[in-house]
């Protein structure tokens, strides 16, 4: 079975599978082979994460220039896909290990209408930093437009800026005791 690493002991007596899950109360539980499949694929054994968030862009090169040279992101991948006549372009904050941004060039008029307004004027992405004032001052020196000035709240320090197309971002630094710090 695919997930047997989650079982300490497992025996099959022809009718039932007897198993013990690590970290449980020590009781061996019987179940049918079909039930075992459901037990092994329960949500508690699944690990999922959001890998990419697509940002619709007008032009790959101008978007890469903005993310790499203005926001100091890393260009992780830039691969041409001839069968679709597009590029697979992935950027992410330097030193980050979470979700990346897929820069997706608008391919028709409907998609072009959403460049710069992917969330109807609401803040779209949230960029957490370990030093708010360092990044805020550097972004301003590079011409990044902040539409809401820095403020301190119970969760941390935040300011809102626009990307090159007008999508709104929060630049924020959570307080050390904020619950989101456990996920970063």
Question: Describe it for me?
Answer:
There is one protein chain. The chain is of the alpha+beta class and 184 residues long. It has 3 domains: 4-45, no CATH class; 49-115, 2,3-Dihydroxybiphenyl 1,2-Dioxygenase, domain 1 (Roll), CATH 3.10.180; 119-184, Roll (2,3-Dihydroxybiphenyl 1,2-Dioxygenase, domain 1), CATH 3.10.180. It is 18% helix and 37% strand. The protein contains 4 helices and 11 strands. The chain has helices at 33-40, 60-70, 109-112, 132-141; strands at 9-12, 17-20, 29-31, 52-57, 73-81, 86-93, 100-105, 123-128, 146-153, 156-162, 168-174. The strands form 3 sheets. It has a 4-stranded mixed sheet, covered by helices on one side. Strand 2 (17-20) and strand 3 form a beta hairpin. The longest helix is centred in the middle third of the chain and has 11 residues, at 60-70. The radius of gyration is 23 Å and the shape is globular. Mean pLDDT is 85; it is low at 1-8.
- What is the makeup of the main sheet? 4 strands, mixed
Strand-residue proportion: 35-45%
Give the C-level CATH assignment of the largest domain: Alpha Beta
**Count of beta strands:** 11
Number of helices: 4
Q: What distance lies between the first and last C-alpha atoms, to the nearest angstrom?
A: 33 Å
Oligomer: single chain
> What's the alpha carbon Rg, rounded to whole Å?
23 Å
Q: Could you give the order of the helices and strands?
A: EEEHEHEEEHEHEEE
Structural class: alpha+beta
Count of domain modules: 3
Percent range of helical residues: 10-25%
CATH architect. name of the largest domain: Roll
How much is the average pLDDT? 85
User: So, the CATH homologous superfamily of the largest domain?
Assistant: 2,3-Dihydroxybiphenyl 1,2-Dioxygenase, domain 1
Strand order of the largest sheet: 4-7-6-5
Instruction: Specify the overall morphology.
Output: globular
- Uncertain stretches: 1-8
CATH topology value of the largest domain: 2,3-Dihydroxybiphenyl 1,2-Dioxygenase, domain 1
């Amino acid at each position: 079975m695919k997930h047997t690493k989650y079982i300490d002991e497992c025996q099959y007596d022809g009718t039932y599978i007897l198993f013990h899950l690590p970290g449980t109360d020590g009781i061996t539980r019987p179940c049918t082979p079909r039930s075992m499949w459901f037990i092994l694929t329960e949500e508690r054994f699944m690990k999922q994460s959001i890998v990419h968030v697509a940002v619709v862009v007008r032009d790959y090169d101008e978007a890469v220039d903005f993310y790499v040279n203005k926001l100091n992101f890393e260009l992780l991948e830039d691969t041409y896909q001839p069968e679709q006549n597009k590029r697979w372009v992935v950027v992410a904050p330097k030193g980050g290990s979470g979700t990346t941004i897929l820069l997706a060039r608008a391919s028709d008029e409907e998609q072009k209408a959403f460049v710069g307004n992917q969330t109807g004027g609401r803040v779209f992405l949230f960029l957490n930093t370990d030093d708010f004032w360092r990044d805020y001052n550097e972004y301003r020196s590079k011409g990044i437009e902040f539409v809401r000035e820095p403020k301190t709240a119970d969760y941390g320090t935040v300011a809102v800026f626009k990307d090159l197309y007008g999508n709104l971002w929060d630049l924020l630094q959570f307080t050390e005791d904020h619950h989101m710090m456990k996920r970063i």
